[in-house]
Amino acid sequence: MRSAFRGIRGGSSLVRRLLALEIATVVLAAVIAGGVSAWNTRETIEHDAADKMVAVAVALASSPGLADAVAARDVARVQAAAEDTRAGTGVSFVTVMDPAGTRLSHPEPARIGETYQGTFLPAAAGETLVETFPGTLGLSVRAIVPVRGGDGAVVGMVAVGQLRVQVADRIARELGILALAAAVAIALGVGLAVVAARRVKRDTLGLEPREITALHRHHQAVMAAMREGLLVLGADSGRVVVLNAEAARLLGLPAALEASHAAGPTLDELGVDPALRERLADPSPITDETILVGERLLLLNRTELAGPAPDVVLTLRDRTELEAMTRELDDARSVTRALRFAAHEHANHLQAVSTLIELGAQDDARELAQRWSRDLLATGDGELRDRLADPALAALVLDKAADARDRGLELRVGEETALTAAEAGDGQASTDRVTVVGNLVDNALDAALESAHAGTGGLVELDLHAAAGSEVIRVADDGPGLADPDAAFRPGWSTKSRGSGERGLGLALVRRVVDRRGGTIEVHPGGSGGTVVTVTLPLVTAAQPSPAASR
């Protein structure tokens, strides 16, 4: 025990105070319980002794022949009966007397004939009496009962007693056992208190309450200030232990959670996106892996804390804006390449016109310049911007057309493609439209490029118009086609190798947007090969905002 206290002596004052309080509580509880038990034991033993005296006295008083012997004052018979009873029951004395209190028997024969010392008048009147009285043999617990003759009259009395010393010896033996039990209880209690104090010291790392409070405040501040989502799962229960505000925002959950290994919800109970739950069910390592959650691209990392039951730590970073910026950068690069190509072509045209002028063929030069000017105006973007009231969509289509030309492909915009200002809807509807068209056209261009390399294709057709309260987006290509159209819209599916970037997310993102907007997707083969994808989205007006994407 001394070594146990020595191990705790250098710990925190909280642990020492708890240990002292627990020990004091155990000792006080043991003392109180022992005292109550001792008092109850003493009372019980004395009551048992009194009941035994009454029972022995009644048995002797009602024994056959005793009343006749007492009435005849036959001392020999009475003394023999009294001593046989005393020897058989183990009581201290059995005294039989006449109604006047004169002893007819006594453990000491010399005292026969003397007057009984004690109260006997109630017994002479026919009552039973129990009392503690200092008689000739010492302080005793005694019972006095009447002896009745055949006619019911009291002919004598029987007094049976147990010396208080013998009762006290029994009480002492019982109290000794109680004291031993109390000592064992105190020792066990103190030992458990020491074990509990060591456990508290280990669990609190020897920190004081004010230090624990400060650490908790710091933890809360760090969790609130983090711009990275943090999600901690209990390894044994799979329940959420920690979920900061940024993780709740990225996963589309209502609020952050307090730490709880037992009462925290599971990912299923929180309604986390099935794609994330399926990925976490795979125990393989996760390092900077892009995963589509709702309509967000998240960068996921998983780390397991060391220990017998390690918690799983997940970090989430939003890559949606980065992907959008990357896409815009790629588009800008495509436009730059297209402008460089156009500048090269214009330089060639100007050189041809200049040469004709130097040769004196002014009419030919004029005709050539006018023809090229007509071609340039025919390929301008003014007409498309007039037909599409969504500037972002018009810019996207023009950019994709330039990218297609740069890759040796053709993006053909249908003659019926048109969208009025009323049909364009709000900013969210424009964002959804750009997401759907951009990903479908990108996928179609990739498919057409495969056919172009094989020398059998290289054409993508886009048509977008409003009909019956919906906007219909149709993208067709002359590529090799989709072997499994349903699987194509699942996250991670791709016909190409991943290379240095993540693939298989564009069509999945289209599926998320369509499901959120309550639209439909139809995929079927083209007339001369390839794939035709038709997306129908309900129109959104300015007075009817579109459903917001999951945030």
Automatic annotation (TrEMBL):
What residue ranges are annotated as transmembrane? 175-197
- Which Pfam families would you find in this protein's record? HATPase_c (PF02518), sCache_3_2 (PF17203), SPOB_a (PF14689)
Gene Ontology molecular-function annotations: ATP binding
Principal location listed in the UniProt entry: membrane
Q: What is its EC number?
A: 2.7.13.3
User: What is the membrane topology noted in the UniProt record heading this document?
Assistant: Multi-pass membrane protein
Outline the extent of the Histidine kinase domain.
Answer: 436-541
The reaction(s) this protein catalyses: ATP + protein L-histidine = ADP + protein N-phospho-L-histidine
Q: Which UniProt keywords apply?
A: ATP-binding, Cell membrane, Kinase, Membrane, Nucleotide-binding, Phosphoprotein, Transferase, Transmembrane, Transmembrane helix, Two-component regulatory system
SMART domains recorded = HATPase_c
Leading EC class: transferase
The compartments listed are: Cell membrane
Annotated PANTHER family = SENSOR HISTIDINE KINASE DCUS, TWO-COMPONENT HISTIDINE KINASE
UniProt name for this protein: histidine kinase
Q: Which organism is it from?
A: Actinomycetospora flava
